[in-house]
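Narrative of activities, Objective 1.

The group set out to show that a structural description can be obtained from nothing but a protein's sequence at a throughput compatible with the screening campaign. Below is one input-output pair from the validation batch, recorded exactly as produced.
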Amino acid sequence: MTSDQVTDDLIKLRGDISEKELELRRARFLTSTAKVLTATVPTVLVISWIASYPVGTLFDLGPAWAVVGVLSAAAGLAAVILWMVGSDKKLLAPHRLDLDLERLYDEQALYFGADGIELTLRQEIYRGATTRDVTTLRKRGDGYRLVNNAFQSVVIVGSLATTTVASLSPTEGPSKWLTVGFSAAVGLSAGFTGYFKYRERAFYLRQTADDLEEQLNAYNLGLGAYAEGTTDERRAELTGRIEAIRVAQQRREQQLDQPKASAESS
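Output recorded for this entry:
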Protein backbone atom coordinates (compact mmCIF):
# COMPACT_ATOMS: atom_id res chain seq x y z
CA MET A 1 0.00 0.00 0.00
CA THR A 2 1.58 3.29 -1.13
CA SER A 3 1.68 6.44 0.94
CA ASP A 4 -0.64 8.26 -1.49
CA GLN A 5 -3.20 5.47 -1.28
CA VAL A 6 -3.05 5.49 2.52
CA THR A 7 -3.56 9.25 2.52
CA ASP A 8 -6.54 9.01 0.16
CA ASP A 9 -8.15 6.25 2.25
CA LEU A 10 -7.69 8.20 5.47
CA ILE A 11 -9.08 11.38 3.89
CA LYS A 12 -12.14 9.46 2.69
CA LEU A 13 -12.59 7.86 6.11
CA ARG A 14 -12.28 11.20 7.84
CA GLY A 15 -14.86 12.64 5.46
CA ASP A 16 -17.27 9.83 6.28
CA ILE A 17 -16.74 10.50 10.00
CA SER A 18 -17.38 14.23 9.55
CA GLU A 19 -20.60 13.57 7.61
CA LYS A 20 -21.79 11.09 10.23
CA GLU A 21 -21.00 13.56 13.02
CA LEU A 22 -23.04 16.20 11.20
CA GLU A 23 -25.96 13.78 10.80
CA LEU A 24 -25.74 12.88 14.49
CA ARG A 25 -25.79 16.53 15.58
CA ARG A 26 -28.76 17.19 13.29
CA ALA A 27 -30.58 14.12 14.61
CA ARG A 28 -30.03 15.14 18.22
CA PHE A 29 -31.24 18.67 17.50
CA LEU A 30 -34.37 17.44 15.72
CA THR A 31 -35.10 14.94 18.49
CA SER A 32 -34.77 17.61 21.17
CA THR A 33 -36.92 20.01 19.14
CA ALA A 34 -39.63 17.39 18.65
CA LYS A 35 -39.67 16.62 22.37
CA VAL A 36 -39.84 20.30 23.28
CA LEU A 37 -42.68 20.94 20.85
CA THR A 38 -44.56 17.90 22.12
CA ALA A 39 -44.27 19.09 25.71
CA THR A 40 -44.94 22.76 24.89
CA VAL A 41 -48.57 22.37 23.83
CA PRO A 42 -49.99 20.84 27.05
CA THR A 43 -47.71 23.00 29.20
CA VAL A 44 -48.86 26.24 27.56
CA LEU A 45 -52.49 25.20 27.80
CA VAL A 46 -52.24 24.30 31.48
CA ILE A 47 -50.38 27.52 32.38
CA SER A 48 -52.86 29.60 30.40
CA TRP A 49 -55.77 27.88 32.08
CA ILE A 50 -54.32 28.51 35.56
CA ALA A 51 -53.46 32.14 34.78
CA SER A 52 -56.93 32.82 33.37
CA TYR A 53 -58.53 32.76 36.83
CA PRO A 54 -56.85 35.82 38.42
CA VAL A 55 -56.44 37.73 35.15
CA GLY A 56 -59.83 36.86 33.65
CA THR A 57 -61.68 39.01 36.15
CA LEU A 58 -59.89 42.14 34.93
CA PHE A 59 -59.38 41.64 31.19
CA ASP A 60 -61.12 40.00 28.28
CA LEU A 61 -59.08 36.89 27.56
CA GLY A 62 -60.77 36.07 24.26
CA PRO A 63 -57.95 37.44 22.03
CA ALA A 64 -55.31 35.92 24.30
CA TRP A 65 -56.95 32.48 24.10
CA ALA A 66 -57.10 32.83 20.32
CA VAL A 67 -53.35 33.51 20.18
CA VAL A 68 -52.65 30.61 22.55
CA GLY A 69 -54.80 28.32 20.44
CA VAL A 70 -53.07 29.29 17.19
CA LEU A 71 -49.60 28.90 18.68
CA SER A 72 -50.48 25.56 20.28
CA ALA A 73 -51.94 24.26 17.04
CA ALA A 74 -48.85 25.40 15.12
CA ALA A 75 -46.52 23.76 17.65
CA GLY A 76 -48.52 20.54 17.57
CA LEU A 77 -48.58 20.47 13.78
CA ALA A 78 -44.83 21.17 13.63
CA ALA A 79 -44.19 18.31 16.08
CA VAL A 80 -46.29 15.89 14.02
CA ILE A 81 -44.60 16.88 10.74
CA LEU A 82 -41.18 16.66 12.37
CA TRP A 83 -41.86 13.18 13.71
CA MET A 84 -43.20 11.98 10.35
CA VAL A 85 -40.36 13.40 8.26
CA GLY A 86 -37.69 12.55 10.80
CA SER A 87 -38.86 8.98 11.26
CA ASP A 88 -38.98 8.43 7.51
CA LYS A 89 -35.40 9.65 7.06
CA LYS A 90 -34.18 8.10 10.33
CA LEU A 91 -33.28 11.55 11.65
CA LEU A 92 -35.01 10.86 14.95
CA ALA A 93 -32.87 7.84 15.75
CA PRO A 94 -29.62 9.35 17.06
CA HIS A 95 -28.72 6.09 18.81
CA ARG A 96 -28.45 4.33 15.44
CA LEU A 97 -26.26 7.11 14.05
CA ASP A 98 -24.19 6.95 17.21
CA LEU A 99 -23.55 3.26 16.60
CA ASP A 100 -22.55 3.96 13.00
CA LEU A 101 -20.19 6.68 14.19
CA GLU A 102 -18.61 4.35 16.74
CA ARG A 103 -18.04 1.81 13.96
CA LEU A 104 -16.25 4.45 11.89
CA TYR A 105 -14.14 5.43 14.89
CA ASP A 106 -13.16 1.79 15.39
CA GLU A 107 -12.32 1.50 11.70
CA GLN A 108 -10.14 4.59 11.91
CA ALA A 109 -8.38 3.26 15.02
CA LEU A 110 -7.67 -0.06 13.32
CA TYR A 111 -6.46 1.73 10.22
CA PHE A 112 -4.06 3.87 12.26
CA GLY A 113 -2.80 0.76 14.02
CA ALA A 114 -1.88 -1.02 10.81
CA ASP A 115 1.78 -1.73 10.16
CA GLY A 116 1.72 0.06 6.80
CA ILE A 117 0.93 3.46 8.34
CA GLU A 118 4.05 5.40 9.18
CA LEU A 119 4.20 7.33 12.44
CA THR A 120 4.99 10.58 10.65
CA LEU A 121 1.85 10.23 8.54
CA ARG A 122 -0.27 9.65 11.65
CA GLN A 123 1.18 12.74 13.30
CA GLU A 124 0.58 14.85 10.18
CA ILE A 125 -3.05 13.74 9.99
CA TYR A 126 -3.39 14.43 13.70
CA ARG A 127 -2.10 17.97 13.11
CA GLY A 128 -4.61 18.50 10.32
CA ALA A 129 -7.44 17.29 12.54
CA THR A 130 -6.34 19.72 15.25
CA THR A 131 -6.78 22.63 12.84
CA ARG A 132 -10.43 21.66 12.37
CA ASP A 133 -10.85 21.14 16.11
CA VAL A 134 -9.83 24.75 16.79
CA THR A 135 -12.83 25.95 14.78
CA THR A 136 -15.13 23.45 16.48
CA LEU A 137 -14.00 24.48 19.96
CA ARG A 138 -14.56 28.15 19.21
CA LYS A 139 -18.04 27.49 17.87
CA ARG A 140 -18.91 25.53 21.02
CA GLY A 141 -17.49 28.30 23.17
CA ASP A 142 -19.48 30.95 21.30
CA GLY A 143 -22.63 28.89 21.77
CA TYR A 144 -22.13 28.66 25.53
CA ARG A 145 -21.33 32.37 25.66
CA LEU A 146 -24.56 33.28 23.87
CA VAL A 147 -26.59 31.11 26.24
CA ASN A 148 -24.87 32.65 29.26
CA ASN A 149 -25.45 36.19 27.95
CA ALA A 150 -29.13 35.40 27.36
CA PHE A 151 -29.63 34.13 30.90
CA GLN A 152 -27.67 37.04 32.36
CA SER A 153 -29.83 39.48 30.39
CA VAL A 154 -32.95 37.84 31.84
CA VAL A 155 -31.48 38.17 35.34
CA ILE A 156 -30.64 41.86 34.89
CA VAL A 157 -33.87 42.88 33.16
CA GLY A 158 -36.01 40.68 35.39
CA SER A 159 -34.47 42.03 38.59
CA LEU A 160 -35.03 45.64 37.52
CA ALA A 161 -38.56 44.87 36.33
CA THR A 162 -39.42 43.07 39.58
CA THR A 163 -38.22 45.99 41.70
CA THR A 164 -39.97 48.57 39.51
CA VAL A 165 -43.32 46.77 39.36
CA ALA A 166 -43.27 45.97 43.07
CA SER A 167 -42.53 49.58 44.06
CA LEU A 168 -44.91 51.35 41.66
CA SER A 169 -47.91 49.02 41.78
CA PRO A 170 -50.25 47.96 44.57
CA THR A 171 -49.79 44.63 46.30
CA GLU A 172 -52.96 43.18 44.78
CA GLY A 173 -54.00 42.87 41.16
CA PRO A 174 -52.27 41.90 37.92
CA SER A 175 -49.02 43.56 39.00
CA LYS A 176 -48.67 40.94 41.70
CA TRP A 177 -48.61 38.19 39.08
CA LEU A 178 -46.15 40.16 36.98
CA THR A 179 -43.84 40.37 39.98
CA VAL A 180 -44.18 36.64 40.53
CA GLY A 181 -43.44 35.92 36.89
CA PHE A 182 -40.37 38.18 36.79
CA SER A 183 -39.05 36.69 40.04
CA ALA A 184 -39.51 33.15 38.70
CA ALA A 185 -37.68 34.04 35.47
CA VAL A 186 -34.80 35.56 37.42
CA GLY A 187 -34.56 32.55 39.73
CA LEU A 188 -34.64 30.04 36.89
CA SER A 189 -32.02 31.93 34.88
CA ALA A 190 -29.71 32.28 37.86
CA GLY A 191 -30.16 28.62 38.71
CA PHE A 192 -29.37 27.45 35.17
CA THR A 193 -26.24 29.61 34.89
CA GLY A 194 -25.02 28.49 38.31
CA TYR A 195 -25.61 24.79 37.73
CA PHE A 196 -24.51 24.38 34.11
CA LYS A 197 -21.68 26.96 34.31
CA TYR A 198 -22.07 28.28 30.77
CA ARG A 199 -19.60 31.14 31.30
CA GLU A 200 -16.86 28.84 32.57
CA ARG A 201 -17.41 26.36 29.76
CA ALA A 202 -17.19 29.13 27.14
CA PHE A 203 -14.01 30.48 28.72
CA TYR A 204 -12.23 27.12 28.87
CA LEU A 205 -13.22 26.16 25.33
CA ARG A 206 -11.95 29.46 23.96
CA GLN A 207 -8.77 29.13 26.01
CA THR A 208 -8.14 25.62 24.66
CA ALA A 209 -8.74 26.78 21.08
CA ASP A 210 -6.29 29.66 21.56
CA ASP A 211 -3.65 27.33 23.06
CA LEU A 212 -3.99 24.87 20.18
CA GLU A 213 -3.78 27.65 17.61
CA GLU A 214 -0.71 29.05 19.34
CA GLN A 215 1.06 25.71 19.08
CA LEU A 216 0.08 25.26 15.43
CA ASN A 217 1.28 28.76 14.52
CA ALA A 218 4.53 28.25 16.40
CA TYR A 219 5.10 24.98 14.54
CA ASN A 220 4.31 26.46 11.13
CA LEU A 221 6.56 29.48 11.74
CA GLY A 222 9.36 27.63 13.53
CA LEU A 223 9.10 29.56 16.79
CA GLY A 224 9.87 28.62 20.39
CA ALA A 225 10.25 24.89 20.91
CA TYR A 226 9.94 24.32 17.14
CA ALA A 227 12.84 26.54 16.14
CA GLU A 228 15.37 23.72 16.18
CA GLY A 229 15.46 20.02 15.40
CA THR A 230 14.45 17.90 12.47
CA THR A 231 10.96 17.85 11.00
CA ASP A 232 10.18 14.55 12.71
CA GLU A 233 11.34 15.90 16.08
CA ARG A 234 9.30 19.08 15.74
CA ARG A 235 6.24 17.11 14.64
CA ALA A 236 6.59 14.77 17.62
CA GLU A 237 6.92 17.77 19.96
CA LEU A 238 3.78 19.33 18.48
CA THR A 239 1.81 16.11 18.88
CA GLY A 240 2.82 15.81 22.53
CA ARG A 241 1.90 19.41 23.35
CA ILE A 242 -1.45 19.16 21.59
CA GLU A 243 -2.33 15.98 23.44
CA ALA A 244 -1.41 17.62 26.77
CA ILE A 245 -3.74 20.54 25.99
CA ARG A 246 -6.55 18.14 25.11
CA VAL A 247 -6.11 16.19 28.34
CA ALA A 248 -6.18 19.43 30.36
CA GLN A 249 -9.43 20.47 28.64
CA GLN A 250 -11.02 17.09 29.36
CA ARG A 251 -10.11 17.39 33.03
CA ARG A 252 -11.59 20.88 33.22
CA GLU A 253 -14.84 19.65 31.65
CA GLN A 254 -14.99 16.78 34.13
CA GLN A 255 -14.55 19.22 37.01
CA LEU A 256 -17.35 21.41 35.66
CA ASP A 257 -19.66 18.41 35.42
CA GLN A 258 -19.03 17.48 39.06
CA PRO A 259 -21.13 18.91 41.90
CA LYS A 260 -19.57 21.86 43.67
CA ALA A 261 -18.82 19.97 46.89
CA SER A 262 -17.15 17.10 45.02
CA ALA A 263 -15.09 19.49 42.89
CA GLU A 264 -13.83 21.35 45.95
CA SER A 265 -12.90 18.13 47.77
CA SER A 266 -11.04 16.77 44.73
